[in-house]
Amino acid sequence: MKMIGRATEIAQRIVDAFREPGNLPKALAPIFVRRNDDVPCRKWSWHNQLLVALSGTSDARGIRQWNTVGRKLKKGCKGIWILAPCIKTIREKNDKGEEEKRNIVYGFKGIPVFAVEDTEGKPLLGNEQYDEWVRKLPLVQVAESWGIHVGTYSGEGKGALGYFQFGTGRKAIVLGTENLSTWAHELVHAADHHLTRLVDDRNLLEIIAELGSAILLEAIGYQYEADLGGAYAYIQHYATAAGKPPVRACIDVLDRACSCVALILDTAEKAAEDIS
Predict the structure, then answer these.
(1) What is the pLDDT of residue 276?
(2) Residue 176 near residue 153, CB atoms below 8 Å
(3) Residue 93, exposed/middle/buried by CB under 10 A (0-12, 13-18, 19+)?
(4) Which of the two residues, 153 and 174, has the higher pLDDT score?
(5) Tens of pLDDT along 41-91?
(6) How far apart are CA 101 and CA 200, in angstroms?
(7) Which of these, 170, 193, 180, lies nearest to 139 by C-alpha position?
C-alpha cells in the first residue's frame, strides 16, 4: 500500500485549507477518559500515575498488592520506580496555644512497583469500556507490531491529551481523551521515531505529528475526526514558537509527514497479510 503519492495529495489539500483558517470546522471538544476501576495506582499522585502509564502499562502495584489479589511476579522482571512521600508527624501549637499533631512531607524516596504484564496468577477485572475502545482503535495493529503498548489514563486537567514514550524499556502510547485525532497524532510520533529517532526540535516534531495525523485520518476515511480546525490551532501554536507562519511550517515538513503516514499504512497492510 504505497501511499506517498496519495498522502502528498491529501497533505496539499490540507495545507491549502490552512490558508483560510476562518473557513475550517471548529475544533472537536475532547471527551476525556475517566477511568474509575479499583486499580490502586489510580489513587496515586498524578506524576506517579504518569510514570506508570509511560512505562507501558495501565496497572502497576507493589509486590504485596499483587500477592493480595492472587498474583506473583514473573522471574527476572524489572520494577517501575515511582516517588513515595516521606512523612513525619510534628507537634505544634495552634492560635489558641493548644498542642496539635500535623503530618508534613519532608522529602521523597524511590520505590519499585511492577506492571501487570510482569505478573501471573488469578485474572483481574478490567475497565472494559476503555480496554474495548483501545482494541477497536483504527490501526492499533501498527502500534502492536512495533512493540508499543497502547493504554489510557484519566486525562482531564493533566496537560497533554496523549503521550508517546520511547525512552524506557517499554514503548507506549497513552491516551487521556477518546479522540481519534489524538491517537493518530501519537501514532505519527511513533512512525517518526521509527524513521528518524525524533532528534529534531520539539516544535518541528509536533507540527509533523499534527499534520501527519490529519493526513492519516483523511486517508483512511475519517474526515470529520481529522479535525482540521483543531489541527490548525495546534500547528499555529508550535509554528509561532518556531518563528514560522503555519502554512510555511507545514510545507517545510510535508514530505516527512507523508513518509510517516506511508510507513503506518504499509505496516498496517503487512500486518493484515500476516493475519490472513
Answers:
(1) 63
(2) yes
(3) exposed
(4) 174
(5) 988 887 888 788 778 788 999 999 999 999 999 999 999 999 988 999 998
(6) 52
(7) 180
Q: Treating both helix axes as pointing N-terminal to C-terminal, what angle do 228-242 and 246-275 enclose, rounded to 10 degrees?
A: 120
The grid cell for 145 is: 507490531
pTM passes above 0.85: no
- Nine-digit cell string for 203: 516544535
Q: Which triple of cell numbers denotes residue 50?
A: 504518569
Give residue 163's identity as a one-letter amino acid code: Y
> CB–CB of 156/176 below 8 Å?
yes
The amino acid present at 265, given as its one-letter code, is L
**Long-range contacts of the stretch 222-227 (C-beta < 8 A, 24+):** 222/138, 222/180, 225/28, 225/179, 225/180, 225/181, 225/184, 226/14, 226/181, 227/25, 227/27, 227/28, 227/179, 227/181
Report the alpha-carbon distance of residue 108 to residue 197 in Å, rounded.
33
For the chain, the residue count is 276
Q: How far apart are CA 17 and CA 22, in angstroms?
A: 10
- Whole-Å CA distances, 37 to 40, 85, 106, 202: 9, 24, 31, 35
> What distance in Å separates the CA atoms of residue 43 and residue 41, rounded to the nearest whole number?
5
Q: How many Å apart are CA 270 and CA 276, to the nearest integer?
A: 10
Mean local confidence (pLDDT), 101-119 = 92
Instruction: Report how far residue 93's alpha carbon sits from residue 248's, in angstroms, rounded to the nearest whole number.
Output: 63
Measured at the CA of 151, the angle between CA 222 and CA 128, to 5 degrees, comes to: 90
